């Protein structure tokens, strides 16, 4: 199996997971807080913040999916590296709020690492951009 096929499978998994996560926060915001390492969201109208998180996740998934479908592999690798910052920030947030280490590192840290490694593998697949030689004067 080629590196491109492995990367495509990893990226597809990443895309589907991020889209699922986003939809879960948009459709069931309070139920989605369980298992992310933060306290249960209090009752009231604060679920708008969770829907905002879901919208962010959906946007991230759409960006990855569009780049995958359109074949922009180098841009895809770079975007994956940038998007690895989001779960890393979530990990820091869980740690800052005395959440469980298992959630901080096991959920968010591993997700960040998975996305970053997939981005690096995709960049490795694409190699360096090769420039055409400059034309020689006649």
Task: Please supply descriptive tags for the structure shown above.
138 residues; mainly alpha; 6 helices; elongated; single chain
In short:
This protein has 138 residues and is mostly helical. It has helices at 3-27, 29-32, 47-70, 73-83, 85-96, 101-126. α1 (3-27) packs across α6 (101-126) and α4 runs antiparallel to α6 (101-126).
Please, could you describe this protein's structure?
With 138 residues, the chain is mostly helical. It has one domain. It is built from 6 helices and no strands. Helix 1 (3-27) packs antiparallel against helix 3, helix 3 runs antiparallel to helix 4 (73-83) and helix 4 (73-83) packs antiparallel against helix 6 (101-126).
Topology of helices and strands:
Blueprint: H1 3-27, H2 29-32, H3 47-70, H4 73-83, H5 85-96, H6 101-126
Helix pairs in contact: 1-3, 1-6, 3-4, 4-6, 5-6
How far from one another are the termini? 46 Å
The major β-sheet equals: none
Structural class: mainly alpha
Q: Please, how many domains?
A: 1
**Shape annotation:** elongated
Question: Hey, roughly how much beta strand do the residues contain?
Answer: under 5%
Helix content: over 70%
